[in-house]
Amino acid sequence: MISISSNLNIMIKAAEKASKSIIRDFGEIEKLQVSKKGPNDFVTKTDRHVEKILIEELSKIKKNYSFLSEEIGKIDNKDKDNVWIIDPIDGTVNFLHGIPHFAISIALQSNLEIVSGLIFDPIKDEMYYSEKNKGAFLNNHRLRVSKKNSLDNCLFSSNHEGVKFSDLSIRCSGSAALDLAYVASGRLDGYFQNKVNIWDIAAGTLMVEEAGGIVNDIKKFNDNNINIRASSGVINDKMLQKLENF
To answer: Which domains does the chain have, with CATH numbers?
Structure first.
């Protein structure tokens, strides 16, 4: 069994508890679409409910840690050096349309450095997690980035702007957190996007690095306007050359 910290253990338990609401509501979304009732408010309630569960669970033991979350914003508690960064549902548009590709994302930032990250895909039951200097894992299996060295053989992910910009082979999945988890696991070879939020990518950046990949320095950007470039080390320079004008 892999040894994990108490902080990561809390993150896993919080994500597992919150996922029950997501799975239940995901089934209801499909029914609402068929009945032609507007599901937008329903999704918003799900986001907020999941966020509430995560904050409550993470606060049970680490009572003084602060929070930064997509829905509620920043919560400054006594300990401002340790911050939980949360995205309750990364991929809400997919969730809204009944597409089973979204995830809970939780990261712990300590003294401005991401030290723990978790991305949980509740539909596929895939739990990605990592800790600083301890590696990255998927359901207890060690992750490694892709070893491909030719861009022609690589698959990348970005948003619609990236898809239009580049001649690379690209998919637009709708979940930045899972894109980074897939880079860490070698399913994707690289991920790039402009103007993303810190809660979308905080957990995933650590995961890619701990799986042997490279991520650009995101600290120089504002939390809600980050340009991210992540890939295996083998193709990083080649990818960046392609993205010089992106």
So the answer is: 6-142 (3.30.540.10), 151-242 (3.40.190.80)
Q: Indicate which residues carry an active-site annotation.
A: 70, 87, 89-90, 92, 200
Q: Which of 179, 174, 24 is nearest to 97 (CA)?
A: 174
Report the residue count for the chain. 246
Tokens of 12: 């896993």
- Per-residue pLDDT 10s for the chain (246 aa) are 578 899 999 999 999 999 999 999 998 876 765 454 566 666 678 899 999 999 999 999 889 999 999 888 899 999 999 999 999 999 998 998 889 999 999 999 999 999 999 999 999 999 999 999 999 999 989 999 999 999 999 999 999 888 888 889 999 999 999 999 999 999 999 999 999 999 999 999 999 999 999 999 999 999 889 999 999 999 999 999 999 999
CA separation (Å) from 169 to 155, 183, 201, 239?
A: 5, 14, 21, 11
Say whether pTM exceeds 0.85: yes
CA separation for the pair 176, 198 (Å, rounded):
10
**CB 121 within 8 Å of CB 178:** yes
CA distances in angstroms from 193 to 33, 144, 156, 167, 234, listed in the order given: 30, 22, 11, 15, 19
